[in-house]
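Data card: per-record layout.
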Amino acid sequence: MIEETYINEYRSLLDRLKRNKENIPLELLTTKYQKSYDQLKEKLRSMTKGILQDIVLSDLQIEQTQADQKYIEINAAIRKSGILEKISHAVFRQQDADLVIEYAGQLREIVHRIVKGEK
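The structure for this 119-residue chain is written out next.
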């Protein structure tokens, strides 16, 4: 399970992104402050991926013989759901950690349903 300190750091970085976007013109963020702005966005991408993996993959077990087929089904269902786009929007447009966690829970339901053989 995700540690509270990790989530707090994530929230802090989202808040920093939000403050930057509210207080600094985009032109300056993408020129004068580009390096630190890009680093912040990359850190958020990495942490978001970690949160998703932790929530979605927790307690997930796939039989070795079914793994390839399940991965195909899982990837197709994730793409079809549109949830990854919603997560990206929650991070980079809304800066909303709670929404990211909510969407991760929805992905978890999709993935675990497929692994259990449910539709």
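Known properties of this structure: The longest helix spans residues 34-57. Helices lie at 4-23, 26-29, 34-57, 67-81, 83-94, 97-115.

See the next section for split statistics.
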